[in-house]
């Protein structure tokens, strides 16, 4: 790892509410991964939720207390890392509405990262040494892709790049399959999944079909919310596909 | 307050702070603009023919089935095409109906998209000629291909009052199941003769 | 209020049709990508277009006055309409004063917005839409389902049936070439007999007092080069400052809309035909009010290309009619509730906020951010029903209190696996209609971390 050897930056581990309650293994994988890298990780217990469900429903005033809590809890860390693109986007791109002008906010806004971008840009991981034989379809969740720019979105005419691929692609034996629609939305969209249930499921099933056709055995993503939605469809139809968070995949490797 | 003043007043009251006009970005140029134009023109359904002189246009036209079968031909370029329609004698553009071939001059072409600029003043007494005709033939001088639309607008002199049009290929539609059909309401075919010595 | 989800239900239920509609529009999106890739300065063009529009909106009244002055000196008659009703009355008066009863019309979303056709028809004027797609939906007594591809929701068999009934084509014939030829003949009669032609305006140029109309079919040109009267209708936001600005927009428009480098015809009108008249009707109809809303004013930059519709995964799978407004899709989901928040309050929620629309928009409207912001407007205006707001209030209270959150979480993980499946997946659980709930783990992350050695 190419980092600052003198003072170890203290990282606040931000575990989204649904990861904490429903996919704890993703949180564990993230924690272990960071620790093994030598990162000084702290999990502040008082955290709960970034407020996205309220914000996405237009309930700005019900989001405010959660944004303020978040700043209070996480403002003291050098960096904040979360295994979620949409929650990090909430902090970086939407919290200004409630927190603009607060003393610690500018720092928080510029030092909160999704896991993959943290590994690539901040921890400066260049080597991923591990085995992961299997055909993996990469699901580039929309907030991570188009809000955090974890990779080039297919609409944009800029030089291609993909921070997630950079990490996963190095695993020995992994085959990142080629999808027909590399970054179409899975249809989760938060409350959209429930308010527009029919279209949401159509979108999810189309994503799954794309991965199936490409031969994927595992659908990998960096946002558990999308994976939760896809997995729900997969298990209802008893398909032989698995979903995994990139933290769970990278956990088995040695990063440097 | 009349509508005009009410609208302008409302727009002024609601306008955001002034922001500047940007500079235009540097636009694409091609190593061989003539070739790029020919490709683009072909890709939009046009037929591109390169000839060395105006005389050759007549020869080449003679090879077109639409031309040999044409009963009514109009030409806005002297000595090109065996025109048999006296455009000046037509009192009304409706009388153009039935025109099989119209031969008109294009001022210049645009390489990036196969468009040809045709100023209204070169369309003769009835500007409908370019759209009522069943088949359109454009004649453009070689060496008059600009690279892109930004260069095109630097060059155009908009006639005021007047009319001008970029024509890029024949008329077409894909409104039925996205199936491309050439020949909607305007010309069913559009051929272009680029005339002049090679290598210009 | 019948919302988007309910309106979409019949469309969505026909999975075969949905996949076909989705594929058809995705294909247009791919064509757009291919064209955009071929222009190395594509993103710079988008940036320039956005800046030109922003500048124009900041001085829009001056530019419109300049346009009017220059248009008049070109012999164009300029009219102003505050709203749709006034627009319709002006157009009607121009026709009635001249005893005109047969008019042909090429695509104008503005005239759809103002409901011009029914108004004129009620006043005894025959209006023929001449874009093939527009004519098809007109004959079916339907509105267009997409602003650029109005008949995208119809299969060729549907059109074959329609033409058999209305135009006398052979029964069962559905070949697009054959049907287009039939339409060509039928509409040619209309062009020849028309006494006036009405068009929209893609761009009006302040500097020169003229305007541009872009078509592939040539119907705008047929309709305005034969009859002596041409009426062009434009929203105030169609104005651009200079002729050279057209280059930027024309390089973006057709590529974004249909994946072509340019339309077959890009017509510049700077005056009436010899012996004819040219009228321009400038329409506000709520646009100046949108201009005054900082969060949503960028939506006025829209050049009506439809790229956002082609890329939107929701639009492709729910169809234009599910939006219930003249302009559907992402941009429509802003324009409609801006006009009537109560009637169209479901539209900003008919989005997963994926952001694809914002990335294809040639004028870089931050569509998905505006949709997100509009949701807050709807809550402020209490358009979002009370029970939903109340639910969020409860959720917020629980999440703001770690002890309550932990208890709620533990309870959920403990209870759900012990409930009978029929109850869990009852009609009250929309998530569970087609999906399994996530498996409820015994321990949460925060439970497990206590076991984790430091």
User: Given the C-alpha coordinates, what overall shape of chain A results?
Assistant: globular
Helix content of chain C: 40-55%
Separation of termini of chain C?
55 Å
Helix content of chain A: 40-55%
Number of helices of chain C: 22
- Tell me the Rg of chain A in angstroms: 18 Å
Taking pLDDT < 50 over at least 5 consecutive residues as the criterion, the unreliable ranges of chain A are 1-6
Identify the strand order in the major beta sheet of chain A: 2-1-3-4
Characterize the quaternary organization of these chains: heterotrimer
- Could you name the ranges of chain C where pLDDT drops below 50 across 5 or more consecutive residues? none
Q: Alpha-carbon distance between the termini of chain A?
A: 4 Å
Q: How many beta-strand segments of chain A? A: 10
Keywords:
heterotrimer, A: 256 residues, alpha/beta, 4-stranded parallel β-sheet, 14 helices, 10 strands, 46% helix, globular, C: 454 residues, 6-stranded parallel β-sheet, 4-stranded mixed β-sheet, 22 helices
Topology:
The complex is a heterotrimer of chains A (256), B (200) and C (454).
Chain A: E1 10-13, H1 17-22, H2 24-36, E2 40-42, H3 52-56, H4 60-74, E3 79-82, H5 85-94, H6 96-99, H7 105-111, E4 112-114, H8 115-122, E5 128-129, E6 131-139, H9 142-147, H10 163-168, E7 172-176, H11 192-195, H12 197-213, E8 218-221, H13 224-236, E9 242-245, H14 246-250, E10 254-255
Parallel strand pairs in A: 1-2, 1-3, 3-4, 6-7, 6-8, 8-9
Antiparallel strand pairs in A: 5-10
Helix pairs in contact in A: 12-13
Chain B: H1 3-14, H2 33-43, E1 47-51, H3 54-61, H4 65-68, E2 73-75, E3 101-105, E4 108-110, E5 115-119, H5 129-132, E6 135-141, E7 145-146, H6 149-155, E8 162-167, E9 172-173, E10 181-182, E11 189-195
Parallel strand pairs in B: 1-11, 2-3, 3-6, 4-7, 6-11
Antiparallel strand pairs in B: 4-5, 5-8, 9-10
Chain C: H1 4-13, H2 15-37, H3 42-58, H4 60-73, E1 76-81, H5 84-97, E2 102-105, H6 109-113, H7 116-122, E3 126-129, H8 132-139, H9 156-166, H10 176-193, E4 196-199, E5 203-205, E6 210-215, H11 219-225, E7 229-235, E8 239-240, H12 243-257, E9 265-270, E10 277-283, H13 287-291, H14 307-311, H15 313-318, H16 329-339, H17 356-360, H18 367-380, H19 386-399, H20 402-415, H21 421-424, H22 445-451
Parallel strand pairs in C: 1-10, 2-3, 2-4, 4-7, 5-8, 7-10
Antiparallel strand pairs in C: 5-6, 6-9
